[in-house]
Sequence to fold (528 residues):
Amino acid sequence: MKALLAKYGRIWLRTSAMALQAQLTYRLGSFGFLLGKMIRLFFFFAFMAAVFQHVETVAGYSLVETALFFMTFNLIDMTAQILFRCVYGARRTVNEGDFDFYLVQPCSPLFRMTCSTVDFLDVVTIIPVIVMTGMVFARLPPLGWENYAAYGLLMVNGVGLIYAIHILVAALAVRTQELESAIWIYRDVMFMGKFPMDVYAPAVRWALTVGIPIAVMTTFPAKALLGRLSAGWVVYALALTAAALPLSWMFWRASVARYTSSSS
Amino acid sequence: MKTYWVAYQIALQETLQRRSTLIMDRLGGFAVVVSLYSFWTALIGDKATFLGYTRAEMLTYVLALNILRSFVFTGRGWQLVGEISSGRISSYLIRPLSYHGYALALDLAQKTIHVAAAALEVGLLVLCVRGELFLPQDPATWVLFGVAALLSSLLFFFLEFMISSLAFWTSESGGPLFCFELFLQFAAGAFFPLDVLPAALRRALEATPFPYMVYFPVRIFLEKVPPLEGMRMLSMEALWLAAAYAAATTVWKRGMRSYAAEGG
Fold:
């Protein structure tokens, strides 16, 4: 097991170094993407701050609490983008025949398809997000260690659940050689996690907690930190990820078993 | 003209052929609209107005956003970058047609489908939330809004075309284009009305062409500007459009001179 982890650690470091080199070569492009990400962050934060010049609470949450939801969303979303960026090119990998090479390499094709690229632009972008999250934490009232423990646990759980979705998207690319929009619909639907779930109508809230569990991924950690999430929901979140990961992995295995190579 | 009409019809068929991609695109956009609607509803709460918008006006703003996003922000920028970088644009340059006209025809086909889909989504959301809409009583408002939307769409087309033409000089123009599109969406008021921003920032943005793409057209629709002021806005928008057209064609001509026809 230790040897296996060391092997995948080496592969990840090598492919990450290659990704960094590629992004450093692509300077103007990388700068543009980085600036765009910063602008998005700045405008949303300015928007939140401006809104709270006119109201005291939104759906019962103060400015600091709403900012906590927004920053937690960004932390989880960016972590997933840093680690699982490879999935965004899954359809192209399949269509151009690169996936055939993954299959003959002495390395898990799922690992190659989902984790073998690191988005260093998000590594840079996440730094101000961490600083801003620290500032938000400093303005929260004193909270018990168990709140912080639940926050950390549910953050990790959220990233796990996002990974299950990324496996599903990669499997769909292998199975259908289409559905390149699948990852983008995930990105658009994730937009809903920027706000506390309490702003949504009950039916939408239910859909985002049980149907497409955006709430579990993005807003449960902040709610747990604020002490507004019951133990039952914490158990539900953990059970959901525990079920989603093996199920998506089984779907991946079934998709690869049906794969007959799509390029010449 | 017949050439462009045929191009429009073929592009229309192509867009309709890729139904799964279209449906996923629309689902993603719909999620954003539901988020924004829910957030604004939570902000208004029990208040009669918020930032000078009644509940009906705010709902109309969000729904009009969905239609304007589909009509204005569906350009050909990314395709142009790809075609220049890969050299595929050569095949268009030797044809007896204007590339701008051809791109406009394809863009119009995309807009036709997306605006129709957006109108359906708006109808669905209105039914779901049973909310009251603001509909202008003065027929002149509809005319002014239609003209403003048309000018906005052309303004976006030429601005995006200008940025994408950077691909004639660098293969990294994707970064600046990404940055431009993100900045534009916020600065145009495509996520929230610019009224929410601090006065200084709003005034700075109003001196740019961006608010003319979404914010001002929606204000015209909501009859928040007197007819004379509306005419002044349209004149300014027309001036910006003329400037964007001149800049885009100048950059294009210079780009043509430095184009090296990469690829096969």
User: Anything to note?
Assistant: The interface with chain B takes residues 26-37, 39-40, 43, 46-47, 50-51, 53-55, 58-59, 178-182, 184-185, 187-189, 191-192, 194-195, 198-201, 204 of chain A (CB under 8 Å). The two ends of chain A are 37 Å apart (CA to CA). Chain A has a mean pLDDT of 87. Chain A has one domain: 2-258.
